[in-house]
Amino acid sequence: MNKNGVSLRSTYSPPGEIRPGHQSLRDQHRPIENGTLTIAQPHSADNRRGESRWAISRRASLVVFLVLAALTWTQCDFSRRQNPDWKPVLALADAAREKGDLDYAKHLYLQGGKFAVWRDDWAGLLAAACGTKRLERERGPYSSTNALLLRAMVAAEKRQSRSGLVAVAKAFAVLGNDKVASMVLSLIEKDWVEETHDSAAVVSHGCWDT
Questions:
Q1: Residue 126 and residue 203: Cα distance in Å, rounded?
Q2: In sequence order, which residues have a C-beta less than 8 Å from that of residue 159 and are 6 or more positions away?
Q3: What is the C-alpha separation between 128 and 116, in angstroms, rounded?
């Protein structure tokens, strides 16, 4: 009985009583649980850091976009106000042609035509076409003169200039392009108001007289 009693007491313990062996097992599991919590905390902190970096990056991208948009708008507005005048350039082109520097003269005529395009100035384009016409021996559909006249047509139509389209049509007719001249005249609308172009005198250099 004593042996059995000792044996029973050694193997049996009341409910709720934690034996040293069991306590050691529970203590072994606690670091794992605590470790799990410890690992989760840095992970959530990394998430917060990632979200913060994403927000900062998004704001920086928005700021860069707004700055670029502002610079683009300013540049466009500035270029509109500062478009160079084509008249001095064509004067230099005429001087170069008279001196016999034909290549440089053609370069200046085309440059003057470019300046006139920026201003939507059909008279300047006609004047530039007049200069290239005097230099070009053969004028095909892809010649510089025809290209400048087509630009002049677009500029005159954009300004709704009746006199501009009439002048362009006359120039095409002088070059023998009667069909193109008729097409240009067909672009004129009845409700267009006649404009007084301050550069109209520049157009008549004898180039487009029949």
A1: 6
A2: 120, 122, 195
A3: 9
Report the predicted TM-score, pTM, of the whole model to 2 decimal places: 0.60
d(CA 29, CA 149): 91
More confident residue, 156 or 36: 156
Q: Measured at the alpha carbon of residue 163, what is the angle toward residues 84 and 109, in degrees to the nearest 5?
A: 35
**Would the pLDDT of 12 be above 60?**
no
Looking at domain 87-203, its CATH class is: mainly alpha
Compute the half-sphere exposure of residue 31: CA atoms within 13 Å on the CB side of its CA: 4
**Residue 206 predicted with pLDDT over 60:** yes
Domain ranges of the chain: 18-82, 87-203
How far is it, in rounded angstroms, from Cα 140 to Cα 175? 10
Q: What's residue 77's pLDDT?
A: 45
